[in-house]
Amino acid sequence: MRLADKVAIVTGGASGIGRAIARLFAREGAKVVIGDLTEAVREGGAPTAQVIAGDGGTARFRICDVARKADVDALVAAAVAEFGRLDIMVNNAATLGAGTGLLETTEQDWDHVMAVNAKGVFLGCQAAVRQFLTQPVVDEARGRIVNISSQHGMVAAPGKIAYGTGKAAVVYLTRQIAVDHAKDHIICNAVAPGRILTGKPLGGPGSDPLEYSRMRTPMPRLGRPDDVARAALFLASAEATYVTGHNLMVDGGWMAY
Ligand SMILES: NC(=O)c1ccc[n+]([C@@H]2O[C@H](COP(=O)([O-])OP(=O)(O)OC[C@H]3O[C@@H](n4cnc5c(N)ncnc54)[C@H](O)[C@@H]3O)[C@@H](O)[C@H]2O)c1
Questions:
Q1: From which domain of life does this come (predicted)?
Q2: Domain ranges of the chain
Q3: Which of 29, 52, 95, 123 lies 20 to 30 Å (CA to CA) from residue 156?
Q4: Range 7-256: architecture per CATH
Q5: Closest ligand 1 atom to the C-alpha of 193?
């Protein structure tokens, strides 16, 4: 129970990596509040909060668009109102947008991707830090942030200019918040997944949509949501107390190549 009695928010926790993080944190004893646009699970299955409750854990779901300040503030307020404090904020929600290059990307798509992937993380960090500053230090921390970045914030995301730029902002935000609030005992890190298999299984005839990712990944398999969840757990736990401002790659070696 590495998160016994901790209170954690996971944005985008309905599906994929966020779902794996929410489930692992709950198994480790955290009370988990999931904020997402929908409870529907992209890869299929019962809603995350329901699955956690079925496993004997504690979880709540709340509709939240991370691009909207009022939603994010209300998410944090709801977690604190029910569980008394906030220990861990995982800013995981993101969108690929249209997934286009410089010349094809419309102004609307750029604004939408930035609103979710960059502003959404900013709003999540801001609401969490405001709450953390009202709390006493426990286990050498007032609170911990884990932002989900990407290898595509450090190297080009072919054909996904808005997504990659938004993810680069997440890495920068993580460092700045870590430095600015170190004195407050607030710990802020990121996890940078490589290619993780989420969403509906790909397949069928035609070219392999995962070919580029397989070619870029030295390890002989692509990532699983639990690979990322375990790294997030480490950064959210007391084991990582002197680690801050770090962007931990969970990418099968993608960025070492
Ligand atoms: N899967 C990968 O290969 C990969 C690689 C690198 C980084 N990442 C990052 O990991 C994180 C999770 O990715 P995933 O593959 O699990 O994605 P996913 O699409 O499977 O799940 C994303 C979740 O976020 C939610 N969401 C989207 N926009 C939202 C908004 N505005 N407000 C609240 N919730 C919103 C969705 O409803 C969904 O439940 C993202 O930050 C993504 O950029 C994923």
A1: Bacteria
A2: 7-256
A3: 123
A4: 3-Layer(aba) Sandwich (3.40)
A5: 6
